[in-house]
Amino acid sequence: MLHSAATGRVAVDATKVMIVNSGTTTLRHETGEVDLAAGQVVLLPPGHWYAGEPAGLVITTTAYIDTAFLEEQERWITQSSAPAPLVLSDSHRSDPTVLDVPSTVFPHVNASLQRLIDGELHHLPTLRRLSLAVDLLDILTRPVPEHSPEHPAVGSAVGTGDIKSG
Q: Which residues, including other chains, have CB under 8 Å from residue 89's CB and lie 6 or more apart?
């Protein structure tokens, strides 16, 4: 979607996944507001209203994902691998979860979300659509390599004693 004017309050029963492809916007919600910029992904819990106010021209890609499915899949997402708290089943939570996606990962997130949307539009078989949703969640919850203990720079620092383990 291409937005250049404010959008009215909207509430849906599905979890909304929105990617900011370019531009900036202020997302207003029931408990406040958050400024979003290109390269960010935001997860909006179901049943709460949100409204957008772009600062100029903003392009977003949005998908609505069945909340029951996300709650079932949450058990597979370990806190250690998630880039941000993905507490999807907390019905009292109304704040959006904003993920700052590294620029190297952003194209993969965008492509995965587009495949998910295309799958819905073309009425792909249920298992194929499920695999597309899982792919999106997998990309969003992968550890960021530069922060992972397996990253060579971190391993080297631990090996030389610059960083104490334990």
A: 70, 71, 74
Q: First vs last Cα of the chain: how many Å apart?
A: 47
DSSP per-residue letters across 77-138 = --TTT-SS----S-TT--SPEEEE--TTTHHHHHHHHHHHHHHHHTT--HHHHHHHHHHHHH
21/44 Cα distance (integer angstroms) = 17
Q: What are the tens digits of pLDDT across the range 113-130?
A: 888 888 888 888 877 877
Strand-pair partners of 50: 10, 29
Helix (H) or strand (E) run with residue 15 in it: strand 15-22
CB 51 within 8 A of CB 69: no
Sheet holding 58-65, edge to edge: 2-3, 58-65, 15-22, 40-44, 97-100
In angstroms, rounded to a whole number, what is the distance separating the alpha carbons of residues 18 and 59? 10
Q: At what angle do helices 126-141 and 106-121 cross, to 10 degrees?
A: 160
Global pTM value: 0.67
Model confidence band, residue 134 (pLDDT cutoffs 50, 70, 90) = confident
